[in-house]
Amino acid sequence: MKQILKSDLDDVLTTLNNMTNNTQGFSIDADCDGYQLVRENGAWIVSPDRFLSKRQLYQWISAYVLGIEDGQKILKRYELDRMLEKMGANK
């Protein structure tokens, strides 16, 4: 199993911030107990309400990113269906 480095967390965090157009202020809070995903300099704890290992947080953020990607696909499909409906293609 590949060791998860701080740089891996930074990379997945960059992906998350890019997906959200850097509007949510996601960052990683770390202390001796582990790591958390937070927003707005720690004002909001996004990850589970306990500290995680690097691997756990990496997996958690990766799942969060996949959830956003799925939501975007669903939204795009919905918008396409609405556009086709307006054009009369679904009659």
Précis, in short:
The protein is 52% helix and 15% strand. It has two helices and three strands, in the order H-E-E-E-H.
Task: Tell me the layout of helices and strands.
Blueprint: H1 6-19, E1 26-31, E2 34-39, E3 44-45, H2 54-86
Antiparallel strand pairs: 1-2, 2-3
Describe the structure.
- This protein has 91 residues and is an alpha+beta fold.
- The chain has one domain.
- It is built from two helices and three strands, in the order H-E-E-E-H.
- It has helices spanning 6-19, 54-86, and strands spanning 26-31, 34-39, 44-45.
- It has a three-stranded antiparallel beta sheet, covered by helices on one side.
- A hairpin with a 2-residue loop joins strand 1 and strand 2.
- Helix 1 runs parallel beside helix 2 (54-86).
- The longest helix has 33 residues, at 54-86.
- It is elongated and about 60 Å long.
List SSEs in N-to-C order. HEEEH
Q: Main β-sheet, in a few words?
A: 3 strands, antiparallel
Order of strands in the sheet with the most strands? Answer: 1-2-3
Mean pLDDT: 92
Taking all Cα atoms into account, the compactness measure Rg is 17 Å
Helix share of residues? 40-55%
Structural class: alpha+beta
Q: What's the number of helices?
A: 2
Oligomer: single chain
Note the gap between the termini: 53 Å
DSSP summary, beta strand count: 3
Domains counted in the coordinates: how many?
Answer: 1
| Low-confidence sequence ranges | none
* Beta-strand residue fraction: 15-25%
Tertiary shape = elongated
